[in-house]
Amino acid sequence: MITRRLIVASAPLVVLAPSLALAAPAPAFTARDIDGKTRSLSEFKGKTVVLEWVNEGCPYVKKHYSGNMQGLQQAATADGVVWLSVASSAPGKQGYFADGAQARTWMSAKGAKPTTLLLDPEGVVATAYKAKTTPHMYVIDPAGQLVYQGAIDDKPSNKVEDIATAKNYVAAALSDLKAGRKVAVPASQPYGCAVKYKDA
Amino acid sequence: MLLRRLFAAVLAPLALLAAAASPARAEVVKTGHIEVELVSQEAAAVPGSTVFVALRQKIQTHWHTYWRNPGDAGDATKIVWTLPAGWTAGDIVWPTPERVRVGPLQDYAYSGEVLLPVPITVPASAKPGQTVTLKAAAAFLVCEEICVPEDAVVTLSLPVVAGPAKPDPKWGETVGKVLAAAPKPAGLKATWKKDGETLKLSVTGAALKGADFADAYFFPYSGKAIDHAAPQAIERGPEGLTLSLTAGFDFGPEATEVPTELSGVLALKGGSYEITATAGETPAGSVGLGSLPAAGAGSTGGSQGASGNGQTGSASIVGGLPVALLFAFLGGLILNLMPCVFPVLSLKAASLAAHAHDAGKTRVQGLAFLAGVVATFLALAGLLIAVRAGGEAVGWGFQLQSPAVVAVLSLLMLLVALNLSGVFEVGAAVQGAAGGVSAGSGLAGAFLTGALAVIVAAPCTAPFMAGALGFALTQPPAFALLVFLALALGFAAPFVILAFAPGLLKKLPRPGAWMDVLKHALAFPMYGAAAWLVWVFSQQAGGVALALLLAAAVLVAFAAWAYGLGETRRFAGKTPLVAFGFALAGLAGGVLLTVGALKAPVPATGPQVAEAGPGLVAEPWSPERVAALQAEGKVVMVDFTADWCVTCKVNEKTALAGPRLVDAFKAQNAVLLKADWTKRDATIAAALAEHGRAGVPLYLVYPKGAGAPVILPQLLTEGLVIEAVEKAAKG
């Protein structure tokens, strides 16, 4: 009865291999951030890095930007974690940011608090990480090893009320890292909208 | 909302009056892209029994809802029940889903109409005469190119009766069919075995004996078990099959704790089975009878809910092996006349004419040629079968899908052409000029001619061959090899018959100076072949690589000339060393440049927007595009082609480009799609296999709306295409 016209998915023509091997070095990348600065993974060596695939129009992203995602970002960055949101929507597709200013406008409207947001309209970073959905989350330890990839939590839904009862995998992975433990859940099936890769 | 309630209030008493005719009553809710309602298998509920109530989704064309494991993206339909006290709802009985491809992502979904039955337990305390209301809050994600989450609260009024309940008059039969078709355990034994990235899933059991394994596919319940998008290679055995899956995270090399069980649905053409595999060795009964092409990634595979789709009619050879052998032989004969074989025919003619005066020598030559043809065909077939057994979706002509092979072949053709032009002679032949060709070198020459002929001819699947090869590749290896043998015999037959028929040979003119002229003339088809291969290479490897290959060609030509010079000097009793040195240097340079060409950066690999004749622009093909265009009411013609397939190119120029055809396409609202197989593509290979083919060309014309395509012959004429399109437009 309620019709929420929210837009998602698209059709890229890139061949994807199986998901990345875990506890393997995280793929290197270089991308422009909202300030026009070139950022690469190597500059964060020695720090824990979270990658968060984002598409502002996706209902699943909206669900978590009801406060959950911002809270995670704030807590993580306060702990010295580098949080990089990545927008890989191709030009003309939902979730595409034409420039840093446009991304910043959305971020301040939402009160998003990542370290920065990377603009990846060509899908280069997304392809390197084989990102499938928004959100799709990755946690990289200070040694540059990929220690978590998958969903943000264990309740695949687009309903805000499910957040309260869900187990947050990213928060769990970060606290495992902080305590020097092995990450208990190193992977899960990501859920959400398909990453809007550019058409080949 | 208000209006609907008002209607409900007005209609409710009326419905009570009509209760005798239609006891179970529900209301259809439209959520935007879906019409949802609850339907019951039985017209009433009996205390102490179970009644199946299904959530029926009528999904807008091109949109999907998702299976319990949605695949790479998407979300399964969820139902939350509100039931009278004591009544309980079980889990959804999920019908086998379809495989839906979204770019690099693979989803498991439903389209059209789908029923999701749920067992509802009726308590023994339920009172006959009472009418209960079952309420379901359904939440589902529905996607086309974009996704929309939709919700619906649907209800069903169900009377409670004491006696046995009758089927619901409207939905009883449909729900029954969905339940009957739903995956079930059938006492099948399943094991999984890790082999690096590959996860071998073997299933055996009585239900699988003699089953049709074409398009077999495993849908895992867990989203982390396998790589959903990877093709699943099929190997058959006497008691079942083995699927080569690509491990997902849970079974991957980095997984810390590998699950003990792998469960899901094995979908076959004849039915679907629930299986739970445990770790173990691959049972002998699940392998050994050869492989099948992996199920098409984008095809709509599963029988879905009530609306089973029998849309994919796969062509097969009626009559089995003998017919396939006959067609293969005929195909081999006809292959002699195909455009891509012509340059090699010229070689054969030249070599045969050279020995027309000596019956004994021509016979030996004929046999050597035959041996060359047979050996090469069987070697290629063996390689193809081996590669396919390894799970690669390759087909006939695959040898020209590798830029390296194309580059080497183009240089080889250039050398043959230069040789025919008289730029150089091979050592033995120089001596032969003085004292007649020795038996030994003639044998080797004829054998190599046969081999060369096959290598160049292979991609040109002649009309009779396509069916036979498609059949052959789905058969056990021994059968496949027999078919290829028949093909080789047919291919070699004209030459061998000529070599063994003195009457025919006598009609050939005696050797003389004219032979040099003929030889020089026949060099040009070979230059043509080299030029064509270079063009194919440029399509595969791009501009930089092309420049390097052309430079390599110049160096190789220089080497050939220097070698010829050296041979002449040697023949004249002078030292050939300097010339040979130059030849060697030239050749080495050529090899280095060729390697460089193969390492040159390849331009973007996405399918290029294909161009056809003036006014008729072919769009890139995908199974989804075909379905979408059909649904838009368009007639769709698909051209399965490759740059290395001359038959395809000839058809495109002669039958798919003329103004008459363009007008006909416009008039009939038809669209041309092009599936380019120049480079390997698993989706295209699967589509070819689906129509019983192992190679290109293949032409399909789909009627508008829906329905199976008509397969056109492999040699097209404009009139034939127009006729097929007009027929399809009429429906």
Distance between the termini of chain B: 41 Å
What is the helical fraction of chain B, as a range of percent? 40-55%
CATH architectural label of chain A: 3-Layer(aba) Sandwich
Q: Which percent band covers the strand fraction of chain B?
A: 15-25%
Number of strands of chain B: 25
What is Rg of chain B? 32 Å
Helical proportion of chain A, percent range:
10-25%
End-to-end separation of chain A in angstroms reads: 37 Å
In N-to-C order, the SSE pattern of chain A is: EEEHHEHEHEEEHE
Oligomer: heterodimer
Mean model confidence by pLDDT of chain B: 77
Question: What kind of sheet is the major sheet of chain B?
Answer: 8 strands, mixed
Largest sheet of chain A: 7 strands, mixed
SS content category of chain A: alpha+beta
Q: Which class best fits the helix and strand makeup of chain B?
A: alpha+beta
Blueprint of the fold:
The complex is a heterodimer of chains A (200) and B (731).
Chain A lengths: L29 E4 L4 E3 L8 E6 L4 H6 L3 H11 L3 E6 L12 H11 L5 E4 L4 H6 L3 E2 L2 E4 L5 E5 L18 H10 L14 E2 L6
Parallel strand pairs in A: 3-4, 4-5
Antiparallel strand pairs in A: 1-2, 1-5, 3-7, 6-9, 7-8
Chain B lengths: L1 H16 L7 E2 L2 E2 L3 E7 L9 E10 L5 E7 L6 E5 L5 E2 L8 E5 L2 E6 L2 E9 L9 E13 L3 E13 L12 H10 L7 E7 L2 E7 L12 E4 L12 E4 L3 E7 L14 E8 L2 E9 L11 E2 L27 H16 L6 H13 L4 H31 L13 H19 L5 H9 L3 H19 L5 H11 L3 H24 L1 H6 L5 H29 L1 H29 L5 H23 L19 E2 L2 H9 L3 E7 L4 H9 L4 H9 L2 E7 L5 H9 L7 E5 L7 E3 L5 H13 L1
Parallel strand pairs in B: 13-19, 21-23, 22-23
Antiparallel strand pairs in B: 1-12, 2-3, 3-4, 4-10, 5-9, 6-11, 7-10, 8-9, 11-12, 13-14, 14-17, 15-18, 16-17, 16-20, 18-19, 22-24, 24-25
Helix pairs in contact in B: 3-9, 3-10, 4-8, 4-12, 5-8, 5-10, 6-12, 6-13, 9-10, 12-13, 13-14, 17-19
How would you describe this structure to a colleague?
- The complex is a heterodimer of chains A (200) and B (731).
- Chain A has a single domain, classed as Glutaredoxin (3-Layer(aba) Sandwich).
- In chain A, 50% of the residues are buried.
- Chain A is α+β, with helices and mostly antiparallel strands and 200 residues long.
- In chain A, strand 1 and strand 2 form a beta hairpin.
- Chain A is built from five helices and nine strands; from the N terminus they run βββααβαβαβββαβ.
- In chain A, the strands form two sheets. In chain A, strands 2-1-5-4-3-7-8 form a seven-stranded mixed β-sheet. A two-stranded antiparallel ribbon of chain A has the order 6-9.
- With 731 residues, chain B is an alpha+beta fold.
- Chain B has four domains: 164 residues, Sandwich (Immunoglobulin-like), CATH 2.60.40.1250; 104 residues, Immunoglobulin-like; 193 residues, no CATH class; 112 residues, Glutaredoxin, CATH 3.40.30.
- Chain B is built from 19 helices and 25 strands.
- In chain B, a hairpin with a 7-residue loop joins strand 24 and strand 25.
- In chain B, helix 3 packs across helix 10, helix 6 packs parallel to helix 13 and helix 13 packs antiparallel against helix 14.
- The radius of gyration of chain B is 32 Å and the shape is elongated.
- About 9% of the residues of chain B have low confidence.
